[in-house]
Amino acid sequence: MSDAVLIQLADSVVADLNAATLSQTFTAVRKYRPPKSLEDVKSLTVLVVPGAVEQEFVSRNSQVETYRVDVAVAKKLDVPSTAGTNTIESLSDPLAYLVEEIKDLFAGARPSAYPTAICSRIVNDPAFYPDRMDDHRVFLSVIQLFYHTVR
After folding, report:
1. Helix 85-106 and helix 5-19: axis angle, to 10°?
2. Cα–Cα distance for residue pair 72/34, rounded to 1 Å
3. Cα–Cα distance between 98 and 91 in angstroms, integer?
4. pLDDT band at 144, cuts 50/70/90?
5. For the segment 38-70, what is each residue's pLDDT rounded down to a tens digit?
6. Please, which contacts does 114-123 make with residues 24 or more away whose CB atoms are closer than 8 Å?
7. Alpha carbon separation from 82 to 8, 76, 77, 137 (Å, rounded)
8. What is d(CA 80, CA 43) in angstroms, rounded to the nearest whole number?
9. DSSP per-residue codes, 74-95
10. Distance between CA atoms of 53 and 8, rounded to whole angstroms?
């Protein structure tokens, strides 16, 4: 039995991330859900989560399908609770740059393992979650990749 298109796209995102040369080293993994607790995040973690599927029927014989794949970038910031914001920013800036690199990697690209789709939209809102940074000292950013196919 073959995998659903959404799973094939998520696996392709994992493979493309792991093959890319980016500013930081990591191994991306696919999960159906992120960790329940941010305390589980210790080192740089890149998770790929199958997100959603939309179908729009444009005629009797044709439909446009949109698949959302989420990429979460998280890292525990080793900052003493008494440290100032400059320390948090200096640790977060390279992670924000990594998020930008990941967005650039997929913008307008076709996944290596599913070339009939194209990444036509990327959403990274918010760019990071300040409450996670404040409460847990974790940098967390979620990138939503939207792939379109026509059948």
Report:
1. 120
2. 8
3. 12
4. very high
5. 677 889 999 999 999 999 988 888 888 999 999
6. 114/5, 114/8, 114/9, 114/12, 114/147, 116/149, 117/5, 117/9, 117/67, 117/147, 117/148, 117/149, 118/147, 118/148, 119/145, 119/146, 119/147, 120/146, 120/147, 120/148, 121/145, 121/146, 122/146
7. 45, 16, 13, 12
8. 16
9. EEE----TT--HHHHHHHHHHH
10. 13
As given in the structure block, the two tokens for residue 107 are: 């913008």
Would you say the pTM of this structure is higher than 0.85? yes
Domains of the chain in start order, with CATH, are 5-150 (3.30.2000.30)
The structure tokens listed for 81 are 């609770």
